[in-house]
Write a structure and sequence with these properties.
Two copies of one chain form a homodimer. By secondary structure, chain A is mostly helical. Helix content of chain A is about 75%, strand content about 0%. Chain A is elongated. Chains A and B meet through helix 8 and helix 9 of A and helix 8 and helix 9 of B. Chains A, B: Keywords: DNA-binding, Repressor, Transcription, Transcription regulation.
Amino acid sequence: MIGIAADLFAKNGYHGTGMAELGQAAGLGRGALYHYIGSKEAVLYAISKEQVDKMNSYAEALFDLGLEPEDLLRQMARGLLRNIAEHRSEWAVFFREHTALTGARRDHVIAARERYESYWRQALDTGVRVGVLRQTPSLLVKGILGMLNYTYLWLDPQGELTPDEVADMFLDALIKGLRL
Amino acid sequence: MIGIAADLFAKNGYHGTGMAELGQAAGLGRGALYHYIGSKEAVLYAISKEQVDKMNSYAEALFDLGLEPEDLLRQMARGLLRNIAEHRSEWAVFFREHTALTGARRDHVIAARERYESYWRQALDTGVRVGVLRQTPSLLVKGILGMLNYTYLWLDPQGELTPDEVADMFLDALIKGLRL
């Protein structure tokens, strides 16, 4: 259901997709649809939170491993691109449409995205502290995440480079530029 | 009119914005609206093509200056971020909604975006040819543009860093990693 809804929202936009279409695609009548999912916004919320929550758990697990900062950054990039390659519609909806969420749902998703950004900043800061990376403005994290996140537009698990190879290529370009 | 429409599309989505709202925001009645702008898709097209066409002209002008490859890349980045900072709604609409275009309009916008990518690739290739940059997979251009383009989400002309400073920071991080 979430995957089908993500495909529809990614294709026609959240505002451009009606509950009737959602129900039809999911093979549910209007009554069943409202019963199971409550509202269109609840579906958008489920789509928006699922992958970013996963990426936060993934980052936390990597931090627990006590990797060197460069390895940590590389593994975070690989994990993100692997996930994006598998869930392109979900990420498209998350990036384009999460601002349509309201109230506590919006707060949760924005907080989750900020937490994910903070893990990247923390990894870069650790690199500075242990003396392997130079100090950089905190806005650089948004640039790195722009580089990684917007692969959802073109990353192809069967493409010329695997998600891991794309992640490595991006980090190869960046890490040298960030070394002390 | 284009600016007003871009703000509306950026806020509510292309599919979520009706001609009636467009007319109201522009202070035009339904008849006048159709007379002046023809269709909602014509407005989306005007929004989508304007800035990318400008960026192509800007890149062509820079190429004509015969700059060193690194300077060329830096100036291209600065030009793009300056433009994005001034036209965030237009870029939001371009990135999120240009796939809603059809026929020749869609073809024009996609070709213009590909031309812009090709200028970046050409600048990187020149750096390789003259022996200052290392050879990189062509997909790197999509990463660099991801880094630059998605500043439309947060770049603030009155923010802690100017668009030029953000561009320089990104290119500082990248160019060292791309040097031979």
